[in-house]
Amino acid sequence: MRWLVQRIGPLGSAAPFAPDSALSVPEPVLDERPKRDLEELVGAEHVLTAPGERLARASGLSYLDLIRRRGFGDFPVPDAVVLPENPAEVQSVLEICARHDVGVVPFGGGTSVVGGVAALRGDKTSVIALDLTRLDELVSVDPVSRIAVLQAGVTGPEADRLLAAHGFTLGHVPQSYERATIGGFAATRSAGQASSGYGRFEDMVKGVRLATPRGEWKLGVAPASAAGPDLRHLAIGSEGALGVITEVALRVRPVPEVRRYEGFVLDGWEKGTDAVRELAQRHVLADVTRLSDVDESEVSLALNDSVKTKALRRYLKARGVHAPCLLIVGWEGASKREVARRRQETTGVLKEFGAVRIGAALGESWRRGRFSGPRQRDALMDNGVCVETLETAAYWNELGDLRDAVRAALTATLGNAIIMCHVSHAYETGASLYFTVLTPRDEADPIAQWQRAKAAASEAITGIGTISHHHAVGVDHARYLAAEIGEIGVEVLRAAKKAVDPGGILNPGKLV
């Protein structure tokens, strides 16, 4: 913390999590008739109305969600939590809610950082959180086609455990992996840390089953089809607004026998992004390819200010590296020979750009600690720091302009702040940028502090890149969607929603 104070000045006051009893939880507003119908369907023990149960499904994991959990402001709370057991019960829940005009917010792991699971009511008097935890089965595995069907409530770790018994894995490991669910991955077009090798989640989806107020909807019958537009991609990314995903058929891969992660350093952001672009365009990206800018690299080194780190700084300076940018690369494969071949192709390109190899220790350290971010964020918030992330993507020729524009917008809004950035996913035509912001928390209005900064960053992104590469739209990005897909695109989404959800009960206030 001493180093952080030196960089950004005095921090805000301590703000630990508030107990549930300290938070405002209104009485549930759910008529007896729909409540009785829901209890008859799933059992009274699976219709929860206690304040703690409702609070637990009231929000996601954004900075604004978490700061409200610490007593700064209120947030909407569902009137009940309903836990169906299977896809048929999910369908029946929607039919009951449509009949009684009750809003439905699907809830998986609760990891949304864009307001995707906020219990908004829209024009509904009542709203329930539809918790899919009990949909936790591996339905089937086809080892010949390499397709597995998983229910929507299965978490990332549980999916890999279930698939490992058959010799397979998804290879989908986002930051939210420990808590997020299969249904959530599909509903938000999730991207994992190893997407360069395994693909984004939508690349894995071969079929999807949804419950809608109009009836069940199943999509995906073949590996490829020219039978009109691929409606799977209307369901994937629909964020619960066009249906509740209950099952997903997914392409799976054999569990890798060998994993190798390493660290490199490049001199400067421009050289680093040029190197990653060359890897992508020569089709020799590692499965994990993550490039940190100078500021993020400096924070990483400062957090590990050991004797070894000081020696590393001297070594890099001796090698002519004046603006260190850390690069993590990782390969996964069926054999040492396969991984060695792919590693040689990747490192051959990196050598052309003067990359300095740091070794496996750095790569393995990153792999072991890659899920520690949320815990670090909690500690920073405990000590008065506003800490939040945002992400976007653009084509290579505009990537530098995008980074500069977002950094300028955040700096102008927040003042003293550390603004870190890394390339989290790379493609032949462009890449994503993932920003992390640290700044002293505004004691007067911490919610407005970040809302202003996020709005400024979103305005800077609009017209250069996408408003979201993998966090989805939710509430936070909805106002910027029309600028990206056009008014006609918004009307197409509204027409689709009207077709499947004429009463507008599904996830009010999200996406469109």
Automatic annotation (TrEMBL):
Residues under site feature: Important for enzyme activity: R290
Gene3D superfamilies, per the entry: 3.30.300.330, 3.30.465.10, 3.30.70.3450, Uridine Diphospho-n-acetylenolpyruvylglucosamine Reductase, domain 2 (3.30.43.10), Vanillyl-alcohol Oxidase, Chain A, domain 4 (1.10.45.10)
Binding site for FAD: P106, F107, G108, G109, G110, T111, S112, E239, G240, A241, L242, G243, V244, I245
InterPro entries listed in its UniProt record: Alkyl-DHAP_Synthase, FAD-bd_oxidored_4_C, FAD-bd_PCMH, FAD-bd_PCMH-like_sf, FAD-bd_PCMH_sub1, FAD-bd_PCMH_sub2, FAD-linked_Oxase-like_C, Oxid_FAD_bind_N
A single BP term in Gene Ontology: lipid biosynthetic process
Domain FAD-binding PCMH-type: from-to ranges: 74-255
Active site: Y434
Keywords from the UniProt entry: FAD, Flavoprotein, Oxidoreductase
Cofactor(s) required for function per UniProt: FAD
Residues the entry annotates as binding substrate: R377
GO molecular function: alkylglycerone-phosphate synthase activity; FAD binding; oxidoreductase activity
Stored Pfam families: FAD-oxidase_C, FAD_binding_4
Source organism superkingdom: Bacteria
Sequence similarity: Belongs to the FAD-binding oxidoreductase/transferase type 4 family.
The name this protein goes by in its record: Alkyldihydroxyacetonephosphate synthase
